[in-house]
Amino acid sequence: MATFRKRGAVYQVQVCRLGVRKSASFSRLSEARAWAATVEAEIFAGVRGVVLDKPVSALLERYRDEVSVRKRGERWERMRIGLFLRDKLADVRLPNLSPADVAAWRDRRLAQVSAASVLREWVLLSHAFTVAVKEWRWLRENPFQGVARPKAPPSRDRRISQNEIDRLLLGFGYRLGEVPDTVTARCGAAFCFAIETAMRASEICGLTWANVSGPVARLPLTKNGSARSVPLSPVALSILDTLPRGDGPVFGLVPSQIDALFRKVKRRALIDDLHFHDTRHEAITRLARKLDVLDLARMVGVRDLRILMVYYNAKPDEIAARLAV
Prior knowledge:
Layout: E1 2-7, E2 10-17, E3 20-26, H1 29-45, H2 56-66, H3 74-84, H4 99-110, H5 115-134, H6 162-172, H7 183-197, H8 201-206, E4 212-213, E5 216-219, E6 228-231, H9 234-241, H10 255-268, H11 278-287, H12 293-300, H13 305-311, H14 316-323
Antiparallel strand pairs: 1-2, 2-3, 4-5, 5-6
């Protein structure tokens, strides 16, 4: 309902309907009444993208419960949203939210984590506000629009040397051709398999025997939401031959195990600045010597050929050696 107050020569009016609060000031009571009637009608009709008088936390919680639950990355999004809910941005009420609040959040996070991490969080938050604008009608516009994103860091070009591979396999207690009889050894097998196939850790962990047919591994669902088939090299097939067949995952691992064990073995091997995902760089660079660009893109699940340049990191001396042949 609308409430009217006279302050001096000005009439202040506030409309509160369906959780929506709007206010304005007029010099005449008749103008205030007309404005209130129009706003109330628009709220009921859903014409105006009026701003609900709720805190940002309510928006994020609804997004978590209604949108994140439908995503493969639900676990990561829940963790991120839990972090956002502890930030002062979560307490700002939507009618008062401005791009300046977003910029302040950005700067706080940049002082705590890398620009790459902030960019990933930015994408999540911005999408939550886009949904609130376009689908829920909670806001008129996305406050992230018009605020400068953090600059993306240079793409990684980390290659893995044979010496590093040997040291890691020693730490994993794994040798090609041998049966990996421990969880750590299976992680070593997954590491070698990643270098041969360019498969992500999540894809390797999700691979089942039902999806391995001859020299091809079928991935029903990948990071970009589509299926793809991965041709398997003789080395990749030899790795699979050492693993016990069954109904469950081929490697019997989950991504968190790979992450923890890889960090542990890497640290003991005194290897710096290496991530498990760098196996994808190494694999794509090696495969580029054998496959044409379209076959390579299809094998590794890249739709935009420009993305291949992010992962393709051939060294100048390697290119020179091919020119000399």
